[in-house]
């Protein structure tokens, strides 16, 4: 047996997604000897199977939908959707799922990249096993950064594990769309992808175990989406608990506890994501085997593990690319001793890129009340806030504000540009801007963000 190679760099970064790559690159820029490790593609989920390719699909679906709105509003249109150019665009954006450009980007900054599975094997020690079973032992002298991300999680439904179900990976890579798709999970991923492919002729049915879609967002958002998506032909079953899933070689068959029997050519599982801390060997850090995230302080240091930092999904602060990048900056400043502001999480933004978009920041009304806050809320309809914004013309949406103590503690911007309007609301929540300042603001007319001013009046 060949002995493992041993290396003692200044820093090791496990997980080279957006945040991990940023940390590794910036430490290399600072003159450190840095080794970045990942068994998958450098760049992580976002550029290959998440944010970027899914938004290409969403944008293409939006174009199809807009073309269908021409009759009765702007003339005559004939729409013949075609998935092939969408797939080609996704291939181009992902370099056909090749990370050479990303690897070269990192190594050109002076870093070293190892492709392989990393596991913590002792205090300050990492074992990396490559595809050829070669082993490299890394013992970082100054910093170990864990940015391992998450993987799709499948619920323990009898029969599911033995079927060729899809995750977002398979759907993103699909050269052709199935005639029908059963989506297990009514969260952001399932709804974004489900709506996009429905617009290209795929018959989509969404199954959600919770009583409503987007269960973590405001109920008004779920009501809006169900109303709009239903007009496009998507079918929904909420409060639906699966008891079995089967596959006969051609179709998936799902049975719900209430008795519904559903069938489709393909099944997309979008029921959340999970961190595999056991596979990482996190017990070396004193983390319980059943932990769902690594405990970190406001400088991203793993509690009880000197010299170890963690960023991104593994910290449990939100599985968003922007969260990983935010925490990467905090961690790099801490590692290099540069100080600056610690991490804060009272104004974390999130966007579901459906049509209409659902942008939200901070606390929902339910979360604020659960914290015992003296809550005031206000909801304004987009179409009602500006004449000419007609329901059913693609302008459906609302602004909901959640206030306590004279400031906003949460907000939702739902509409054609919900994610963009969210920017000003995120700033207001982050800066704890007094409501009096928002009330004194002049809002341009006619814009979607003008509805924020109308909502402020309701407080």
Automatic annotation (TrEMBL):
SUPFAM superfamilies linked: FAD/NAD(P)-binding domain (SSF51905), FAD/NAD-linked reductases, dimerisation (C-terminal) domain (SSF55424)
**Broadest EC class?**
oxidoreductase
Q: What is this protein called?
A: NAD(P)/FAD-dependent oxidoreductase
Q: Where is the FAD/NAD(P)-binding domain?
A: 10-328
Q: Which cofactor does it need?
A: FAD
Q: Which UniProt keywords apply?
A: FAD, Flavoprotein, Oxidoreductase
A Pfam family reported for this protein in Swiss-Prot or TrEMBL: Pyr_redox_dim
Record EC number: 1.-.-.-
Q: Name the protein family.
A: Belongs to the class-I pyridine nucleotide-disulfide oxidoreductase family.
This entry's Gene Ontology molecular function terms read: oxidoreductase activity
Annotated ranges, domain Pyridine nucleotide-disulphide oxidoreductase dimerisation: 348-455
Q: Which domain of life is it from?
A: Bacteria
């Amino acid at each position: 047996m060949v002995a493992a190679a041993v290396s003692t760099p200044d820093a090791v970064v496990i997980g080279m997604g957006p945040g991990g790559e940023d940390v590794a690159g910036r430490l290399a820029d600072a003159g450190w000897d840095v080794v970045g490790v990942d068994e998958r593609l450098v760049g992580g989920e976002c550029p290959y199977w998440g944010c970027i390719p899914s938004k290409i699909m969403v944008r293409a679906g939006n174009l199809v939908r807009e073309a269908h709105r021409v009759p009765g509003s702007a003339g005559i249109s004939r729409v013949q959707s075609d998935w092939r150019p969408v797939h080609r665009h996704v291939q181009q954006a992902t370099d056909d799922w090749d990370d050479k450009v990303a690897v070269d980007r990192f190594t050109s900054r002076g870093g070293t990249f190892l492709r392989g599975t990393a596991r913590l094997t002792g205090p300050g020690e990492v074992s990396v096993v490559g595809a050829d079973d070669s082993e490299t032992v890394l013992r970082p002298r100054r910093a170990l950064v864990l940015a391992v991300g998450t993987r799709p999680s499948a619920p323990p439904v009898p029969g599911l594990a033995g079927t060729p179900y899809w995750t977002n990976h398979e759907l993103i890579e699909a050269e052709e769309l199935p005639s029908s798709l059963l989506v297990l999970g009514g969260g952001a991923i399932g709804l974004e992808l489900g709506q996009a492919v429905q617009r290209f002729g795929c018959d989509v049915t969404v199954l959600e175990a919770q009583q409503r879609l987007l269960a973590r967002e405001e109920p008004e958002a779920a009501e809006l989406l169900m109303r709009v998506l239903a007009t496009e032909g998507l079918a929904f079953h909420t409060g639906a608990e699966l008891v079995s899933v089967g596959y006969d070689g051609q179709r998936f068959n799902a049975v719900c506890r209430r008795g519904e029997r559903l069938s489709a050519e393909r099944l997309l599982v979008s029921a959340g994501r999970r961190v595999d801390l056991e596979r990482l060997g996190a017990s070396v850090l004193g983390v319980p085997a059943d932990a769902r995230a690594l405990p970190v302080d406001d400088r991203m240091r793993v509690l009880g593990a000197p010299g170890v930092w963690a960023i991104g999904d593994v910290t449990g602060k939100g599985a968003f690319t922007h969260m990983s990048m935010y925490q990467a900056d905090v961690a790099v400043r801490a590692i290099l001793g540069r100080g600056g502001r610690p991490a804060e999480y009272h104004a974390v933004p999130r966007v579901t890129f459906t049509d209409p978009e659902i942008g939200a920041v901070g606390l929902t009304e339910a979360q604020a009340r659960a914290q015992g806050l003296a809550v005031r809320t206000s909801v304004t309809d987009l179409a009602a806030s500006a004449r000419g914004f007609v329901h059913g013309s693609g302008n459906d949406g609302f602004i909901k504000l959640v206030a306590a103590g004279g400031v906003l503690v949460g907000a939702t911007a739902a509409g054609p540009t919900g994610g963009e309007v969210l920017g000003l609301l995120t700033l207001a929540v982050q800066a704890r801007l007094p409501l009096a300042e928002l009330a004194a603001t002049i809002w341009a007319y006619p814009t979607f963000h003008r509805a924020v001013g109308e909502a402020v009046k309701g407080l």
